[in-house]
Amino acid sequence: MNKKLSLLVTFFILSILLVVTFSGCIEEKQKTEEIPIPVVKLDQPSILPDWKDGEYHDYYETTDMLSDFKVEYPDLVKVFSIGKSVLDLDIWCIRITNEKNNDKKLSCLIDGCIHGNEWEAGEACLYLAEYLLTNFDNNETITNILNSSEIYLVSLVNPDGRQADTRWNDNGVDLNRNFDVHFGRLRSGNYPLGKLFGFIKIPYIKHPLRKNSVLGEYSSNCGRHAFSEPETQSLRDVMKSLDNYAFYINCHTALHGVTPVVNVDYKPEYIASQQEKKVYNFAEDWIGENTEYSSCHVDDVSFSGAGFAHHWVFKEFRIPSYCFEMLSPDYDPWFGHGKHDHLVHWMKTTLPVFMYLLVNIENLYNWEIPDIQPSLPEGVPPEPLK
Ligand SMILES: [Zn+2]
């Protein structure tokens, strides 16, 4: 009996052990099934902002949009005022970067609406901001850009001009003639007048005999002295505060091209070195081949411009610096009322230029050949308008 009992006990214990072991396996198996599979989000195609034609952002709508970005993307966005306009409006700057990454970063600055009636130049900054923010952590190219760079966007350098839909600021001064480079040259159509007697605005003078030139028909009030205007002072100061400043783009509308610093046809305040010219010319060739915008080489143009922001940036910081004239060349840059159309199309045309320079930020900072190709979303660049 004892033997039978001990056999039974042994069988019983073995059965329990088997059940425990087997059920353990099931549990183990269930556990592994519960472990979530990590979702690989990188390398997803980027998504374009959902904008509609006709929906432009004036000063107040821009202010709201930037506030929304700050709330929605607190780890990527800082919004701050770089100063006040003549009429006391804030000049907003949005800084986009991955704030959680403390590695050394390079910075760049892109601005728009230095001429207040050139709306699309400001819109392009907002469109780029939304494109970068919505695709961060989803698209590898954009994730890398925001991990390695700080992108400063000032979409309305001239908020008073934007609200009044005029090229000049509220002192009647052309802000893109007010920078400290070849300042006030009569030969380049400038007169350093400022406000006459402190209250009379004379923004431009039309020459009855000079025709058939986009700018040559007019002379512009460039302000009494370089950086006489609060808007240009604000832009100058924020740029001087940047660390590892790599490149600058000053956005405009109308001439349909991207212009580097070019030779100025009077005594130069700077001379581009051979390497600087090589980098500029390579980038210009890329833009000419991959976008609908025309481009030029540093030595191709003899130019009498004066007081331009992008020329001053090159002189001051010695970094690649561009004037980006988006939109169609038939737009009137002086009095362009009522010619704002095809907003979404124009925004899409700007992305290849911005993305190309952004993926090459390190090359540009080191004045090395910017030969990295940007990945672009479907439909970019769009077919040119007929
Ligand atoms: Zn302009």
How would you portray this structure in words?
The chain has 386 residues and is of the alpha/beta class. It is 36% helix and 16% strand. The chain contains ten helices and 13 strands. It has helices at residues 2-34, 59-72, 119-135, 140-148, 159-164, 230-240, 274-290, 309-317, 343-359, 361-365; strands at 77-84, 90-96, 106-111, 149-154, 190-191, 204-206, 218-221, 245-253, 257-259, 263-264, 294-295, 302-303, 321-326. The chain has an eight-stranded mixed sheet with strand order 1-2-4-3-8-13-9-11, sandwiched between helices. A three-stranded mixed sheet has the order 5-7-6, with no helix packed on it. A two-stranded parallel ribbon has the order 10-12. The longest helix is centred in the first third of the chain and has 33 residues, at 2-34. Bound molecules: zinc ion. Zinc ion binds next to loops.
